[in-house]
Amino acid sequence: MSANTFGELFRVTTFGESHGPALGAIIDGCPPGLAIDEAFIQAELDRRKPGANRYTTPRREADEVKILSGVFEGKTTGTPIGLVIENTDQRSKDYSDIKDLFRPGHADYTYAHKYGFRDYRGGGRSSARETAMRVAAGAIAKQLLAQMGITVRAAMTQMGAIHAEQYDWTQVYENPFFFPDPARLDDLDALIRQLKKEGDSIGARIRVEAIGVPAGLGEPVFDRLDADLAKALMSINAVKAVSIGDGFAVVEQRGSEHRDEMTPTGFSSNHAGGVLGGISSGQTVVAEIALKPTSSIKKPGQTIDVHGQAQTISTHGRHDPCVGIRAVPIAEAMMALVLIDHILRQRAQNGAVSHQFPILK
Ligand SMILES: Cc1cc2nc3c(=O)[nH]c(=O)nc-3n(C[C@H](O)[C@H](O)[C@H](O)COP(=O)(O)O)c2cc1C
Ligand SMILES: C=C(O[C@@H]1CC(C(=O)O)=C[C@@H](OP(=O)(O)O)[C@H]1O)C(=O)O
């Protein structure tokens, strides 16, 4: 499989760099005849786009998606779906002063080692601008999932030391932080203001879940559903940890507490996060991700240049003070892509998505 392609049967290839003319995606393997709402794809992109509010990067991109192929009269044709978004606000000269320096914490140093030289304009392919195409592809996956009664949702549940104490999902769509606890919004606002003053950044935690997933999705060994989710979520820029269900908290649990007991009316708990033996159990699939603080910050720090000489770096230009905010729709997109891929795989092998045993939620 190509390094730029994700998925086995619902395959998404992305191309493009942050400061090139455009970004694009090709989706191969999407079933034909499915109604596609283009306005929904755009709405999803609007949730991720830069420049939308004072809490994210000020780079202003409309992120207007054009569907070039694979959709006719509002329905998928079964042929490759081509999507493209033009870049319009690159301002590459912001990077000219630091083109020979390696930003600590970004991918400059590793790209230089891998390829021998690098596109220093806005991080090139390493910029999270690429994730716009994942969100566009994920919006198509979400529509297919919705037709099967499956919903994917995510929220930023922690920024720095500020935790959500209340999980009101209706609030997530009401505020620019995608935060489920309205009582902490002023604290989030104050923290971002302070970070901007200091020229610094902060990390975040996101919870992402899928509701209505049938039991039976996932392969038994290598392509376990949880393994594929971990890969998909870890492939998002700046993600440093992924957990499924109770995650690291399982370390302190007893078996008698962790195992999700079963009754004729359903599971008694969901410590497993909806996956057993790499296969979905029919419960809500729950994952969390930790995102590191943005590395491109104004606060001066030590680095080296391409000649190995010590340098001090301060990154100006336009950057997110907390990348976790805009990563919320990206996490949803990646979970949606994994689920649709496994639905197609389950149908290909077993015909049915889920067999006729008692269904527990
Ligand atoms: C939504 C989103 C926005 C981001 N915005 C920035 C940014 O403005 N500046 C920056 O230096 N890094 C940003 N990042 C993080 C970098 O893309 C990431 O650190 C870089 O690709 C190196 O990869 P790694 O952190 O996974 O090792 C962002 C990440 C995401 C998910
Ligand atoms: C433009 C977007 O975010 C960018 C993500 C990013 C990075 O290093 O990840 C760096 C900044 O932009 P540039 O690539 O111009 O340096 C952000 O503005 C976007 O997400 O659409």
From TrEMBL:
Reaction catalyzed: 5-O-(1-carboxyvinyl)-3-phosphoshikimate = chorismate + phosphate
UniProt KW keywords: Amino-acid biosynthesis, Aromatic amino acid biosynthesis, FAD, Flavoprotein, FMN, Lyase, NADP
GO cellular component, one term: cytosol
CDD domains given in the database record: Chorismate_synthase
A GO molecular-function annotation: chorismate synthase activity
Highest rank taxon of the organism: Bacteria
Gene3D superfamilies: Chorismate synthase AroC
Binding sites annotated in the UniProt record for FMN: R125, S126, S127, N237, A238, G277, K292, P293, T294, S295, S296, R318
Protein residues bound to NADP(+): R48, R54
GO terms of biological process kind: amino acid biosynthetic process; aromatic amino acid family biosynthetic process; chorismate biosynthetic process
Pathway where it operates: Metabolic intermediate biosynthesis; chorismate biosynthesis; chorismate from D-erythrose 4-phosphate and phosphoenolpyruvate: step 7/7
Reported cofactor(s): FMNH2
First-level EC class: lyase
Cofactor binding remark: Reduced FMN (FMNH(2)).
UniProt keyword NADP present: yes
EC numbers: 4.2.3.5
Subunit structure, as described in the record: Homotetramer.
Entries under NCBIfam families matching the protein: aroC, PRK05382.1
Record's function text: This reaction introduces a second double bond into the aromatic ring system.
Family named by the database record: Belongs to the chorismate synthase family.
Protein name, UniProt field: Chorismate synthase
Organism for this UniProt entry: Aliidiomarina haloalkalitolerans
